[in-house]
Design a protein that fits this description.
The chain has a single domain (6-302), classed as Thiamin diphosphate (ThDP)-binding fold, Pyr/PP domains (Rossmann fold, 3-Layer(aba) Sandwich). A five-stranded parallel beta sheet has the order 1-2-3-7-6, with helices on both faces. The protein is globular and about 50 Å long. The chain has helices spanning 6-30, 46-53, 69-74, 79-86, 120-134, 152-163, 183-186, 191-197, 210-225, 256-263, 266-276, 282-305, and strands at 61-63, 140-145, 168-174, 177-178, 181-182, 202-206, 231-236. The longest helix has 25 residues, at 6-30. By secondary structure, the chain is an alpha/beta fold.
Length: 322
């Protein structure tokens, strides 16, 4: 059984709880009409982002999807800056110009959330090629949904990563639906068999179990750092909210979400495991929950009170200078 020290367990729970509270609060705030643009929430999938990203450092890169808040937080992006970005504020991580679907922080190795389905895998191939060429020992991770796994960009990236023997991990987060289309109906064959077809290992992972994700990601990251090339993780999980905020979820079975929240909540499973085995105390987790709640409250208050971009900001950040 995977053994992690107490500090890592505390960090894991803190990150997962931060993602959950962040997303639940954005869900509430979006309903007020105060948040512009589209929002896609990651609640329920926390163990995937945290289980993968705790194996990475700031010199490693990830590319995300339109459902990117969890990946940002797990990779170390500033929560206050993220909330301001979602509110379209000048001090947001991207100057309030990207919003929910385009948060990025290159200093943390977060190449960006992405409104293009399957847009991330080619980007991480570039980041991985850079790491390999420069000999940094870095790796790159592409998070992609079950719908994005059918995109030509993703399949071409599998091939490129294998041909060039790149330090890449492809993480297919299969939450059961590509927007409203069930993956059981729309994804042909097996994700791990697809990986094998390109000559790289593929592994099925329980995305509701942080420990299963962490262990699988650890193996894939170590393999990549050792120069043994790309891997694929097929992470099965479920989202608590609709594809986007405002989605009535008429395509989901009656009681499906309620059962998911009740029986397969990754935070509840984590709490049960670490407390029953004596790794962490319930009171310690309770304190973390209080601190995270206060942090999210402060982030929302700060975003609401922050300034919007000014007219003079309109033409900044258009071109990069090298």
């Amino acid at each position: 059984m995977l053994q992690l020290n107490r500090d890592t367990l505390v960090e894991a729970f803190t990150l997962m709880k931060t993602i959950r509270d962040f997303e639940d609060r954005v869900h509430t705030e979006f309903a007020t009409g105060a948040i512009p643009g589209f929002v896609h929430l990651y609640a329920g999938e926390e163990a995937s982002a945290v289980g993968v990203c705790l194996n990475l450092n700031d010199s490693d890169y990830i590319a995300s999807t339109h459902r990117g808040h969890g990946h940002c937080i797990a990779k170390g992006c500033d929560v206050d800056g993220m909330m301001k970005e979602i509110y379209g504020r000048r001090d947001g991580l991207c100057g309030g110009k990207g919003g929910s679907m385009h948060i990025a922080d290159l200093a943390k190795g977060m190449m960006g959330a992405n409104g293009i389905v399957g847009g991330g895998p080619p980007l991480v191939c570039g980041a991985a090629l850079s790491a390999k060429t420069l000999g940094t020992g870095g790796v790159a991770v592409a998070f992609v949904g079950d719908g994005g796994s059918n995109q030509g960009t993703t399949l071409e990236s599998y091939n490129l990563a294998k041909v060039w023997n790149l330090p890449v991990i492809f993480v297919v987060e299969d939450n059961g639906y590509a927007e409203t289309t069930a993956s059981a109906w729309a994804v042909g064959g097996s994700q791990t068999k697809r990986a094998e077809a390109f000559g790289m290992p593929g592994r099925e992972v329980d995305g509701h179990d942080f420990f299963d994700v962490y262990e699988a990601a650890q193996e894939a990251v170590e393999r990549a750092r050792a120069g043994d090339g790309p891997s694929l993780l097929h992470v099965r999980l479920g989202r608590h909210y609709g594809h986007f905020e405002g989605d009535a979820m008429a395509y989901r079975a009656e009681g499906e979400v309620e059962a998911l929240r009740r029986d397969k909540d990754c935070l509840k499973a984590f709490r049960t495991r670490v407390t029953e085995t004596g790794l962490l105390e319930p009171e310690q987790l309770d304190q973390i929950e209080r601190e995270v709640g206060a942090r999210i409250d402060a982030a929302v208050a700060g975003a609401i009170g922050a300034a919007a971009p000014a007219a003079e900001d309109l033409l900044t950040d258009v071109y990069a200078s090298y």
